[in-house]
Structure formats: C-alpha cells, structure tokens
Amino acid sequence: MAARNGITLYHSPASRAFTAYWMLEELGVPFGVKTIDIKKGEQKAAAYLKLNPAGKVPTLTDGEVVVSENPAIAIYLADRYGYGTLAPKIEEAARGPYLKWMVFSTAVVDPVASLHEQKIDLPGYNFSFGAFDDMVQVLSGVLKDREFLLGDRFTAADVVLGGTLSRLLYQKILPEEPVLMDYNDRLTQREAFHRAADATWPSQFYGALA
Ligand SMILES: N[C@@H](CCC(=O)N[C@@H](CS)C(=O)NCC(=O)O)C(=O)O
Questions:
Q1: Beta strands in 94-154 (DSSP E)
Q2: So what's the pLDDT on residue 1?
Q3: Is the pLDDT of residue 209 over 60?
Q4: Cβ–Cβ contacts within 10 Å for residue 132, how many?
Q5: pLDDT at 201
Q6: Residue 202 in domain
Q7: Domain end call among 30, 51, 85
Q8: Between vectors from CA 84 to CA 76 and to CA 59, what angle results, nearest 5°?
Q9: Residue whose CA is closest, atom 18 of ligand 1?
Q10: Which residues 6+ apart lie within 8 Å of 112 measured at CB?
Q11: Beta strand 59-62 pairing with 7-11
Q12: Comparing 53 with 125, which gets the higher pLDDT?
C-alpha cells in the first residue's frame, strides 16, 4: 500500500531493486512497497508494463512521477529529498563525477560484469561498456585513496555503484581486490544498507553481516 506522501517502490526480493530500497532507507522518507514477483513473471503484467515498459524492477512512483532504472530513481530521490546532502548541488564541481558514477554503474559495470560471468569478454574498444579488466581498474583506481566515490562524502552515487558492487562481490564476479572489499565493507556497515538488505534479500545472502 502506498505511503501517505505517495512514494511506492515496486520491487522483487533478491533483485537489483535492492539499490532503490537502500536509497529510500538512506533518505529516511516514508514509502510503500509493492512486490512484483519476477519469478512468477509479474513484471510482464499489463498493468505493470504501463509503469515500466521494460518489464523490470525497480520502478518508483511518487505522486504523478513514475521513474525506473536505478540511477534515475536515485538521482530523482536524492534531488528531491536529499539535495545538497546525498546529491551534490547543480553548481558544485562534485556534481560532475556524481552523475558520471551514477551512469557508469549500470551503463558499464553491470553489463560488462554480466557478460564476464557468462565467460564472454569482448574487446573493449568495440563496445560502449569497454572491457571487464578495464572496468575493474577504473573502480580500483578511483577508490584507492578515498573513502567514497567523491572523497570523504557519501552520496547517492555510492548507493548505486555500491548496490551493484556489493552483489558482484558476493557472486564472486568481481575480483576480491582489497580496495574494493574495503569500500564494500564501509557501505555494508551502514544501517540503511542493513535495513534494505533485511527487507529484500534472503537472510543467507548477506549472512556475514548479521
Ligand atoms: N537497468 C535496470 C536493471 C533492472 C533489472 O535488471 N532488473 C531485473 C531483476 S535483477 C528484472 O527485473 N528482471 C526481470 C526480467 O527481466 O524479466 C536497473 O538498473 O534498474
């Protein structure tokens, strides 16, 4: 059932919708949850396709606003409910890398890692997401001397990249490089991460955190 302020998250347990759930927990805004069971194919039901024609979770509605794709959901929520804190302001220099890491998370990290998991490693120069090893190097490079993507400041970009990275480390798709593991530890220690994980993942998934 939708919360009074109108935010509803359509999610499926143990899915990429975890990222949007974590984002809402970081903001501390009230929200309702509707479960779309992707194992039962509910994401392809006509009513849901009207909200998200891609037939995937997550989708978020906030009053009249309908938004899907994790980075878009996080950018929307952070601008609306965490502007200047979880979202750097438009005029801040940090806004550039903030947006870059948002997009990089699902335009590069997620697809190239999915292919790598299938043992498909394409030549980077031919594909927009580049090569798997290059992606790992980019992440290790940016995180080697800082706490979060933008330095000592935690932002919604860490939620989007971190939600992806955390899953990929758990699935052993990303190499266990200390710099990535340390970053993941910093993120998974957050209370909002725990609340979202407890609500959306089977307990064994993040069992080590319990
Ligand atoms: N690019 C989307 C990916 C979302 C996605 O892949 N969702 C999966 C669950 S992990 C899904 O809904 N799969 C169901 C299907 O493809 O039918 C995002 O970042 O939000």
A1: none
A2: 43
A3: no
A4: 22
A5: 85
A6: no
A7: 85
A8: 15
A9: 69
A10: 127, 129, 130, 131, 132, 135
A11: antiparallel
A12: 53
| Exposed e or buried b per residue across 61-75, where buried means at least 16 C-beta atoms within 10 angstroms of its C-beta | bbeeeebbbbbbbbb
- Residue that finishes a domain, picked among 85, 113, 132: 85
Contacts of 81 (CB under 8 A, 6+ apart): 27, 29
Contact criterion met (CB below 8 Å) for 135 and 113? yes
Split at pLDDT 50, 70, 90, the class of 160 is very high
Neighbours of 142 (CB within 10 A): 19
Residues 26 and 115 reside in one and the same domain = no
- Please state the domain count of the chain: 2
Pocket residues: Cβ below 6 A from ligand 1: 15-16, 38, 43, 55-58, 69-70, 106
Residue 144 has pLDDT above 70, yes or no: yes
Alpha helix locations (H) across 15-109?
A: 18-27, 46-51, 70-81, 95-104
Element (H, E) at 111: helix 110-117
DSSP lists the bridge partners of residue 83 as: 87
Q: Distance from the CA of 57 to the center of ligand 1, in angstroms? A: 5
Which CATH number goes with the domain that contains 123?
A: 1.20.1050.10
